[in-house]
Amino acid sequence: MPICSIHPLPYSADPAAFFARVRHAPGAVLLDAGRPMAARGRYDIISAWPEQELQATASETAGDYLQRLRQQLAALGEASLPDGLELPFAGGLMGYLSYDFGRRLEQIAETAVDDLGLPDARFGLYAWALISDHQTQTSQLLFHPALPDARRVWLTALFGTNESGIPESFHLTSNFQANLSQQDYAQAFDKISRYITAGDCYQVNFTQRFQATCSGDPLSAYRALRRACPTPFAAYLGLPGGGAILSLSPERFLKVSQRQVETRPIKGTRSRGASASEDQRLAEELLNSPKERAENLMIVDLLRNDLGRSCATGSVRVPQLFALESYPNVHHLVSSVTGQLAADKDPLDLLAGCFPGGSITGAPKIRAMQVIEELEPTRRSIYCGSIVYLDVRGEMDSSIAIRSLLIKDGTVSCWGGGGIVADSSWQAEYRESITKVKVLLDTLEAL
């Protein structure tokens, strides 16, 4: 099998200097472990100038689009890494599925307004990547065998210089405004409660959107957000026209490594405390909350069923339930569900069978999505979609695009939500939807 070539670079714990050299390039992408501040992530992956840009067309079915991704991945060609080298990506696809790609997978009425106009899906096919491994403290350029020698030489020279460029400033030209008043939120909550009481569903993830007008370089906004809220599944995806997707997600969606599958749903949240004792009290309150544990378990059961569509019979397990993960603004309750891909399935089958993630829809999933469509006035766009890489070996990792912002056409959009169940109170859920993103909104308003 052809082998990728590697060119070592000086290690950098912060990907900003490397990424600044390509941030204006077509298809610029940074998948960011959040180091050195976030501790859980291992790799940063940077690339740009994809061989192909693959955007879902208006009339394309989910199956047709995913098949087009498969074909382009196959056309790039199989490749392996040099012996003894452990890296997550050997050339392949990087991009996003918006939450609204789910309309191509399930029958959902179309009543929410699409006022942002983000394509439902967009991937690049990349034949090179700059990968930093924070465990071994190494940074290297990886070249797929299909990449021409001349481009290898040029990229080696580009990243061999000390010039990184300084991002321009970014600032808001208005304060953030919510698309729902408290009264609107309470009325929607009441309707969801009635659906739950009637047995339509058990849980619905309901969201409000915050928007402000803005000007300047999205990378400056991302760097400020990264400092304020470091997370292990952060990402920056440049968009045509100078916009960008900025994600500070703490949540893994689906990982596939050597055909072993893992998903890590987040369900359950508390604010961080103002003092160490208050913080500890809030963490213990979350860990011991029957309501939060019940919500988490509902989603674990949903994901067990979703994974079962693509995993070998009997292979789905729940090795971790109700673990605490803490971030600068919130504590979260997190579980883990694992499995092994069935012999006749691939990672894109898995993605199609599980998308969108159950932790951000509710249960049962399709009915929850129908309620979301009825009650949220605007489409979610990138929020609660997924940022994904899938390489030529079949290695995949993906996030749920929560704590994520879209900068497009002079507007920045950010979303906050939470799962509503039978014993929820609208006041607590309303506060939680703001708490989750307050650090992001406050950070940008302070620039």
UniProtKB/TrEMBL annotation:
<dbReference type="Pfam" id="PF04715">
    <property type="entry name" value="Anth_synt_I_N"/>
</dbReference>
<dbReference type="Pfam" id="PF00425">
    <property type="entry name" value="Chorismate_bind"/>
</dbReference>
<dbReference type="InterPro" id="IPR019999">
    <property type="entry name" value="Anth_synth_I-like"/>
</dbReference>
<dbReference type="GO" id="GO:0000162">
    <property type="term" value="P:L-tryptophan biosynthetic process"/>
</dbReference>
<protein>
    <recommendedName>
        <fullName>aminodeoxychorismate synthase</fullName>
        <ecNumber>2.6.1.85</ecNumber>
    </recommendedName>
</protein>
<dbReference type="InterPro" id="IPR006805">
    <property type="entry name" value="Anth_synth_I_N"/>
</dbReference>
<dbReference type="GO" id="GO:0009396">
    <property type="term" value="P:folic acid-containing compound biosynthetic process"/>
</dbReference>
<dbReference type="InterPro" id="IPR005801">
    <property type="entry name" value="ADC_synthase"/>
</dbReference>
<dbReference type="InterPro" id="IPR015890">
    <property type="entry name" value="Chorismate_C"/>
</dbReference>
<dbReference type="InterPro" id="IPR005802">
    <property type="entry name" value="ADC_synth_comp_1"/>
</dbReference>
<feature type="domain" description="Chorismate-utilising enzyme C-terminal">
    <location>
        <begin position="182"/>
        <end position="436"/>
    </location>
</feature>
<feature type="domain" description="Anthranilate synthase component I N-terminal">
    <location>
        <begin position="13"/>
        <end position="138"/>
    </location>
</feature>
<keyword id="KW-0808">Transferase</keyword>
<dbReference type="GO" id="GO:0046820">
    <property type="term" value="F:4-amino-4-deoxychorismate synthase activity"/>
</dbReference>
